[in-house]
Please model this.
Amino acid sequence: DAGVIQSPRHEVTEMGQEVTLRCKPISGHNSLFWYRQTMMRGLELLIYFNNNVPIDDSGMPEDRFSAKMPNASFSTLKIQPSEPRDSAVYFCASSLGDRHTGELFFGEGSRLTVL
Amino acid sequence: QKEVEQDPGPLSVPEGAIVSLNCTYSNSAFQYFMWYRQYSRKGPELLMYTYSSGNKEDGRFTAQVDKSSKYISLFIRDSQPSDSATYLCAPRSNTGKLIFGQGTTLQVKP
Model:
C-alpha cells in the first residue's frame, strides 16, 4: 500500500496568493483529517471528514481556509488569500472507522512557506 | 491552560540510556492514551496506546498512565540512535478527537 499521499511536498508562495494542498487517503479508509503543525502550536486538527462528509471543522482558523472531499480518494485544503502566518506543515491523515480510532495514518506533509 | 502539556525538550541521552517522556492532561474524561513518533520531515506514526490506567509494554517501550494524577509516561529502555525522533502524546477525548501534545524531541547519541 502506498500510504497517504500528499502534494505538493513543498510550496513557497507570496502573500495574497491562493494555495491548494492535495491528499489521497489510503484506499478503503473512510475518515480523513487535515492537521497543521507549527513549532509554536504543535499539531492542530483543522477538519475531519467521514464518508466524504465534513464532520468537524471547528479547527479551521478562518474563512480563508476551505476543505473539500469530492470522493473517497481525494481531498483538498485551500487557503485564499494566503498570509505569512499560514506558514506551517500541513498533514493529511486517514483512518478506518467512523470516529477517531486512535490509529491515524499520516502522509509526509506539505511544507508551506508564505512570504 | 492547554488540555495536554508536554515539555518540548530537546532531550539528549547517550546510547543505552533509559529515557522517560512525560505528559500531563487536564480532562479526566480521557480514556485512551496514544503515543506517536515523528521522524524529521515525516508524518507521525502510531507507536503504542493504552486504555485507562496501567502499563503496557512493547519491546523496549513501556507506556504508563496514572489517571489519578493525570500523568502519561513513555519509557524507552536501551535507547538506540534510531529512536531519535519527536514523541507526541495524544489522549483521546470522549468525542473521539485526538488531542496532541507539543511533542518532545529526543536525540540518542552513539
Summary: The mean pLDDT of chain B is 93.
